[in-house]
Amino acid sequence: MTKSQVGAAGRLLREMVAARRDGASAGAERGAAPRVVERARPARSVAAKVAAVGGVDDQTAALLRELTGRHLGADVGRWCGVYDALGGHRGGLPELLAAPPVAPVADDTLRPPAPRSVHHTLGLLLEHAEPEHAAAALAALPERVTTELLAGGTPPGAALLTAVVGHGDSRTRAALARHPRLDTRVLARLAAIGDAQVVAAVYRNPRTTQSLRRTIVQRLDTVPLDEALRA
Questions:
Q1: In terms of CB atoms within 10 Å, which of 40, 94, 168, 194 comes out highest?
Q2: Is this structure's pTM higher than 0.70?
Q3: What are φ and ψ of residue 204, in 5° steps?
């Protein structure tokens, strides 16, 4: 065997070893997200750490659905209590969700703004709750929270969109309709609901097409003009 052949064989062997190592690493990474949900501390860091290991896979989604269904469900008081506790809880997320409920903090209580990580992790839980439960929780949470989750940043995921469009109240639907990056098809679905407050938010959204605005104006006999548009 010539030196060049020996060199080529050596390179091939090194590449095969590296590929096997990378494959094993990728396999471990794929299984990392559920462990993050179970073990990450503090609890509010879960959403960021799940994203860092590749996002929610099927196993992680099933775990999050099980946790929200078992510990939160349709109990809006529990959802509000989890939001209040996320900022200061030093333990893990499953521990926080399983803890005895605490009385929610009054909405007019003065307190420092919650870190963004609180909203991101709360949003992750809402994404994996039943649509009716997520919509009820959003309606009960303080307005600053629904604004953060629905009206800015990265647009909500498909599950949360379904929850709000299909089951939300006027306040949460209007918050969603104000999102500057919302898909125009979602804006059309919101406008079709026929809620004057929501329609006003859709009309003012910069992504709303002129065609949809004309449709809104043509329906003024059935959907009265909201005060926000009279101003």
A1: 168
A2: yes
A3: -85, -10
What distance in Å separates the CA atoms of residue 146 and residue 125, rounded to the nearest whole number?
A: 14
Q: End-to-end CA distance of the chain: give it in Å, rounded.
A: 86
8 Å CB contact between 182 and 209: no
Yes or no: say if 187 and 205 are a contact pair by the CB < 8 Å rule: yes
Calculate the dihedral angle through the C-alpha atoms of 88, 90, 95, 98, rounding to the nearest 10 degrees. Answer: -10
Q: Report the sign of the C-alpha dihedral through residues 118, 121, 123, 125, in that order.
A: negative
**pLDDT per position as a tens digit, 114-138:** 899 999 999 999 999 999 999 999 9
Q: How many CB atoms lie within 10 A of CB 40?
A: 18
Distance separating alpha carbons of residues 208 and 112, to the nearest angstrom? 35
Residue 23 burial (C-beta neighbours within 10 Å; 0-12, 13-18, 19+): exposed
Q: How far lies 136's CA from each of 18, 63, 81, 141, 198, in Å?
A: 50, 21, 14, 9, 17
Token pair, residue 104, equals 């929610």
The least confident of 14-23, 89-98, 194-203 is 14-23
3-state secondary structure (DSSP) of residue 54: coil
213 Cβ contact list (under 8 Å, min separation 6): 203
Minimal CA–CA distance to 126: which of 95, 172, 183? 172
Asked if 30 and 54 touch (Cβ cutoff 8 Å), the reply is yes
Among left, alpha and beta (phi > 0; psi -120 to 50; other), residue 225 is: beta
Identity of the residue numbered 110: L
